[in-house]
Amino acid sequence: MCQINYTTENKKNKPLNQIEMGKIETMLNEGYNSTQIAKAIERDSSCIQKEIKNFSTIVKINKKCDVCKKYEECKKTGLCGNNMLVGYCSSCKDCKIAVENCEDYEPIVKCNKLRGRKKVCNGCPNFKQCRKAKLVYIAEKALKQHEENKKKSIKKMKEIKNTEYMDALSEKIKHGISPEVALQTTENKTGEKISLPTLYLRIDRGLMKCKNIDLRNKLKREPKEEKRERNPNREKHRANGRSYGDLSEEEKTQKLDGFGEMDTVEGIKGSKLLMTLINKKTSFLFGIPINNKKQESIIKELDKLEITMKDKFKLILEKIITDNGCEFLDYKGIEESKNGEEKRLSLYYADPYASYEKGQIENQHRLIRYFYPKGVDFAKYKDSDIIEKINRINNYPRKNLGWSTPYKEMEKIIGKEMLDKLGFYEIAIENLNMTRKNAA
Questions:
Q1: Sign of torsion, CA 114 118 123 125?
Q2: How far apart are CA 37 and CA 57, in angstroms?
């Protein structure tokens, strides 16, 4: 049977065990420093230094008031308990007897040998002869201190009497609303507060009517793939000022009027897919079903959207960032206006393998993928069903909008009449269902 060879890397962020504490004490007594001990037990040297600094104890020998940390501030009287002396002594710090009974006595460890890496008295050749207060690392006492710290760190769960409020939160979370959004959009008439970490903890401990299975994003992320080499033949369309690098710093970092992002969401290759457009300022999402991944299909849907919206199109989609997919290579067709203008929009391409440059639309795809996981064929669903899910996403409150919804923010720009024309409508938070079920 073979044992795993532990290294410093796989011991990282793990507390020291009893055996390791014993080794630290033994090696300190033998005169080794923290760096040598760290190598011996395969730990980081900073871990050993912190252990020695925080969990060493002071051995009190020959108590003297003048070496106490609180000597200057001390005003205690009558500690000796001898009534005959009370009235004769001005203060206890001038008495040799009283210091033995003082519970607040904390001696200062002063020694010229405690310099550099030598922080404790362990291993000192004059240890037995020295009558000063000593700072010593003792494994047994350090272990007890660790256990006490663990007990103190455990927080008791706050008892919440307002069960109606908690039930309202649970009901929203069951409908696919995140705990953070549920907290911000649920009215609490009693004024009783609960923090977001506490809410997650209550769900985890089974103190709510909802469970962890109701949380959409409580999953482990997959590791990132290694970056592949760029193909220079696919970068021709990014010339003539259409690269992401041609945007100004303000355009890259701030959510300006008329800025958007474009992408596609694929189900099964060769089947129906979703063309997605997002206005960065409002986080409003357009999800348009298309039959194939051809350039003509993208241009056709943009033509329809422009004709419907007319002059309001440029208010939300004047400049668009997209990726280097084959469906977006015809920049001339995408930019050409059908309303007689020179350009309907300006197109910019993100750098290859840099999806973070259009990160807002990528985050929106996470919500779409919750309704339609990878491998789901969009052809099995009606266009009206897909658009209905997009409408739910646009009525989901966002932190970056001050807990308003993309629908409400878009309504301020293009008006309710235009949103009705595009097939979007408002859903109250009480009626919003973000689960895969077909509930409205």
A1: negative
A2: 19
Name the residue type at position 242: R
- 3-class state of residue 313 by DSSP: helix
Which stretches within 205-290 are classed as H helix? Answer: 249-253
Q: Which residue has the tokens 């710090």?
A: 93
Q: Does residue 185 contact residue 429 with C-beta atoms inside 8 Å?
A: yes
Do residues 305 and 334 touch, judged by C-beta distance below 8 A? no
- Give the other-Cβ count within 10 Å of 217's Cβ: 9
Q: Give residue 169's Cα distance to chain centre.
A: 22
Task: Give the strand pairing for 273-279 and 346-349.
Answer: unpaired
Angle 18-29/34-41 helices, nearest 10 degrees? Answer: 140
The pLDDT value recorded for residue 437 is 65
> Residue 387's closest CA among 422, 361, 416?
422
pLDDT beneath 70, residues of the chain: 1-11, 60-64, 66-67, 69, 71-72, 78-90, 92-101, 103-106, 115-118, 155-162, 189-192, 218-239, 341, 437-440
- Tally the residues of the chain: 440
The pLDDT assigned to 424 comes to 93
Tell me, what amino acid is at 344?
Answer: R
Q: What is the pTM of this model?
A: 0.61
CA distance 395 to 406: 6
DSSP-based three-state secondary structure for 148:
helix
What are the structure tokens assigned to 439, written together? 């509930």
**CA dist list (Å): 2 to 5, 8, 291, 328:** 9, 19, 57, 55
**How far apart are the C-alpha atoms of 19 and 31, rounded to whole Å?**
19
